[in-house]
């Protein structure tokens, strides 16, 4: 039996969780999942302010960890290892999490596992759906947009990435220029549900290109151009712009994903047909529906984590840490947080 405490402070969620499994190959069990969202602290600024985030993590983290242990019915004595997000992310927040994890490890004589935040997102479906390796991953979050071949634990090949904005960032920037609240993704999705996706003919960046990269800044600029031409915007204009933006994004993603599925079939001929979507944008219902349809058409099984495990959380960090710990990998107490840390 392995029980791991996970800590996540890379952006604007202060989170701690306890995850357990009987042994390698056995299913994992989430004993607790505590997330304190700082959204209210940042909403007035229309985005995450790193300095405010770091200070809020300092204030909240100790009690969040205590709650995660209590809700799991555990004490530090039951914990086998402490897993902490060590990057990529905002360096101030990462330092708070890593310092706290190191202090616990030093005081309680526990091993530390430094976890890559992206790997946390990537491995979540192994906990929720029990899938094996390899699989194809679409990671769409506020900071990252990547198509990754997950060959094994710690063995990742990046097949495509964004050449400018991340997808979540494009949602957030579009929301901001339409004066919608932060975070933008859920706000744009809500408006899009009321709007006409055909009213504005927005570009489909990269569509039809062979390489599996993404580009979203031109799309955002096109929304700005339409919005400027129409100003002042009515509620209908905003809803139609959101619907047209979301349709363009979904269409572009579908094209990239189809190409990725074909490449997976060609290069990983005997690999299981498992496709995983992860990251905060995976909460978008229109994108999920498109992925479900695309996967079904190509004979793939879509694995989309439940919404609370798509956005940032510490369960995914505890789980990634547990997989490494069970594989005999731990980190030294001198491990330094890294604001940039590619998968
Ligand atoms: O993975 P995540 O929680 O944090 C990062 O690691 O970035 O992702 C947050 C991003 C934000 O950009 C947010 O606007 C976006 O995910 N997001 C959404 C939705 N919910 C959150 N984007 C589109 N539709 C949504 N429903
Ligand atoms: Zn994330």
Describe the structure.
- The protein is of the alpha/beta class.
- It has two domains: 2-125 and 309-326, Nucleotidyltransferase, domain 5 (2-Layer Sandwich); 133-271, 2-Layer Sandwich (Nucleotidyltransferase, domain 5).
- The chain is built from eleven helices and ten strands.
- The chain has helices at residues 39-43, 50-71, 91-108, 117-128, 167-177, 184-192, 217-230, 235-267, 285-297, 307-310, 315-326; strands at residues 2-8, 13-21, 28-37, 81-87, 112-116, 135-140, 145-152, 155-161, 274-278, 301-303.
- A hairpin with a 6-residue loop joins strand 2 and strand 3 (28-37).
- The longest helix is centred in the C-terminal third of the chain and has 33 residues, at 235-267.
- It is globular.
- The mean pLDDT is 95.
- The structure holds 5'-O-[(R)-(carboxyoxy)(hydroxy)phosphoryl]adenosine (KG4) and zinc ion.
- 5'-O-[(R)-(carboxyoxy)(hydroxy)phosphoryl]adenosine (KG4) is lined by residues 11, 141-143, 168, 171-172, 183-186, 189, 279-281, 283-284, 311-312.
Kindly report the CATH topology of the largest domain.
Nucleotidyltransferase, domain 5
As a percent range, the share of strand residues is 15-25%
Bound chemical compounds: 5'-O-[(R)-(carboxyoxy)(hydroxy)phosphoryl]adenosine, zinc ion
| Structural class based on helices, strands and sheet pairing | alpha/beta
Distance between the termini: 28 Å
Strand tally? 10
Largest sheet, in brief, is: 5 strands, mixed
Order of the strands making up the biggest sheet: 3-2-1-4-5
Helix content: 40-55%
Helix-strand sequence = EEEHHEHEHEEEHHHHEHEHH
CATH-defined superfamily of the largest domain: ATPase, nucleotide binding domain
> Over all CA atoms, what is the radius of gyration?
20 Å
Shape: globular
Question: Residue ranges: pLDDT <50 for 5 or more in a row?
Answer: none
Number of helices: 11
Rounded mean pLDDT score? 95
CATH architecture of the largest domain: 2-Layer Sandwich
CATH hierarchy class name of the largest domain: Alpha Beta
Estimate nothing, just give the exact number of structural domains. 2
């Amino acid at each position: 039996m392995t029980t791991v405490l996970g800590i996540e402070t890379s952006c604007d969620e202060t989170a701690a969780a306890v995850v357990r499994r009987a042994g390698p190959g056995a299913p994992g069990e989430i004993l607790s999942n505590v997330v304190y969202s700082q959204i209210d602290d940042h909403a007035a600024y229309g985005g995450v302010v790193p300095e405010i985030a770091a200070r809020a993590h300092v204030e909240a983290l100790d009690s969040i960890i205590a709650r995660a242990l209590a809700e799991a019915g555990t004490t530090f004595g039951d914990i086998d290892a402490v897993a902490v997000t060590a990057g990529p992310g905002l360096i101030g927040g990462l330092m708070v999490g890593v310092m706290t994890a190191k202090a616990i490890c030093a005081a309680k004589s526990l091993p530390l596992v430094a976890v890559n935040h992206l790997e946390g997102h990537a491995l979540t479906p192994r906990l929720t759906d029990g899938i094996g390796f390899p699989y194809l991953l679409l990671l769409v979050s506020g900071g990252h947009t990547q198509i990754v071949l997950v060959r094994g634990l710690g063995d990742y090949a990046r097949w495509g990435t964004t050449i400018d904005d991340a997808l979540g960032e494009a949602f957030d920037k579009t929301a901001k220029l339409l004066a919608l609240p932060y975070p933008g993704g859920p706000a744009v999705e809500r408006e899009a549900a009321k709007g006409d996706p055909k009213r504005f003919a927005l570009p489909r960046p990269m569509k039809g290109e062979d390489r599996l990269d993404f580009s979203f800044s031109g799309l955002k600029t096109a929304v700005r151009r339409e919005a400027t031409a129409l100003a002042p915007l009515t509620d209908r204009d905003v809803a139609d712009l959101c619907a047209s933006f979301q349709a363009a994004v979904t269409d572009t993603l579908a094209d990239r994903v189809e190409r990725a599925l074909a490449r997976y079939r060609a290069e990983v001929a005997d690999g299981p047909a498992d496709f995983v979507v992860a990251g905060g944008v995976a909460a978008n219902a229109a994108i999920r529906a498109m992925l479900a349809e695309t996967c079904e058409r190509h004979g793939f099984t879509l694995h989309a984590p439940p919404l609370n495990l798509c956005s940032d959380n510490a369960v995914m960090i505890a789980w990634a840490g547990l997989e490494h710990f069970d594989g005999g990998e731990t980190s030294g107490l001198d491990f330094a947080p890294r604001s940039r840390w590619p998968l």
